[in-house]
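Pipeline run #58 for the internal structure catalog. This entry was flagged by the ingest filter as a single-chain record with no existing model, so it goes straight to prediction. Upstream metadata was stripped on purpose; only the residue string is passed forward. Reviewer on rotation: M.T. Logging verbosity set to normal.
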Amino acid sequence: MVASCFVVSSLVSSTAQASTAAPCSPTTLSSSHSVTNITFEESMAGPALPGLTGSGNHAALQTLIAAYNKSQSKVHVTDLNDTGGYTDTWSKYQADQSNPSSIPQVVMFDQYDTQAAADSQTIVPVSTCLAADKSASLKTFVAKATGAYTLGKTIEGMPFSVSTPVMYYNKQAFVKAGITTPPTTMAQLATDQTKLQAAGYTNGVAIKRDPWITMTWLAMGNQPFINNGNGHTERATAASFNTANAVSYWNAIQTMVKNGALATGATGTINQAYANLFAVSGGQAGITFDTTAALGSIEAALHLFPTVTIGVAPLPTLTGSITGSTPPGGNGLFIPKQDTALQAAAAWDFIKYLTNAKSIAQWASSTGYLPIRTDSVSQWTKNLGGATSQRFAWYNVAYNTFSTGPSNTATAGPVLGSYATVSNELVTALDALTQSPYPSASSLLSAAQSSATADILSYNGRIH
């Protein structure tokens, strides 16, 4: 807590020493007569397994960076990959405030770091760049994607990657177990677990202890995660995830774990963070939930697992219906204020390239992230082999659940500066939920919500 307080205070106080970037005007870049070198710090993972060269989300991003560098002569982008993921990038960015020469010109942040990034007062809001560049527009972007980065009326970061959790299942396991269709309710999931176990799949189902999945279930029920419009209308002051629906989902998870389902962590090395997926490839489970952003990597590795034929379906719900929508989860692109006017203009030019319709279509069809522009969907579909292809059927599941249903603050996902600590409260509760002596879901959610609210208030107090 003390360390967090120090970091926030340091970021805010360092603002006075940072140069104030001019708006990201294209004129600044076009009038330059030399190459502007910028660094892009990002968090994309490499291949799912050693030896799968040219695969993984990082390889897909490197392809786009190389294409941008080749497409023009004004800017050269150097890629800096943080192998520790979003947490590593955010921690490094905070530490770099004391060493301005280390600050990148473009940085990729987890969507849920948006409030903290804005509170640091060290970034140029995308709204500023849009005001300075009349040729740029977000009109074709899916509203939920931009909404995830919007605080009040200010767009803080540029949406780039959007993913949602989906259900992955092994069709060969289903055939052996006599399961004809993927489950659409939690009750059906529990029944299918028993069938898979009877067919020789020891755990039947692999459950990832990831708060993001609980957050998604809430949004699918059109329920917010925190108060004050999920933090979009004004700063959140309390958590609100302890609902009857959340209790029911957690009860279902706990029952399945008691009956032998495998519970795995959501962070760590690839083997740790994706132990649930490896349980499917290794024959311990036939069903799991995970991000659609893993789909490209899964597809690249499928040939190594002849006993697996992948299927993709929406997350099961309590009733089989969805009254809300799956919220976005992923990353956005941010411009630090430390940039000079020319660097900021170069950074903005690069960001526009990464998020143009063609690039978004290529990015989505290479990774499993979603096409967040309506004018990229046609090319995305074509890249996947057309609307009747198997690849499109896989990739389209998440897009359907994301692009349909209401677009509001509940389905845009939460915005809060203390997301990491709040998320950790749920991680702790999920760990307890899935281990003996198996405390009740209602008591765990109640305690986690109280602690999360205290975390939110503590964070708010430190920045005011």
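catalog note: The chain has two domains: 14-163+328-383, 165-325+415-463.
catalog note: Confidence is low (pLDDT under 50) at residues 1-21.
status: ready for reviewer M.T.
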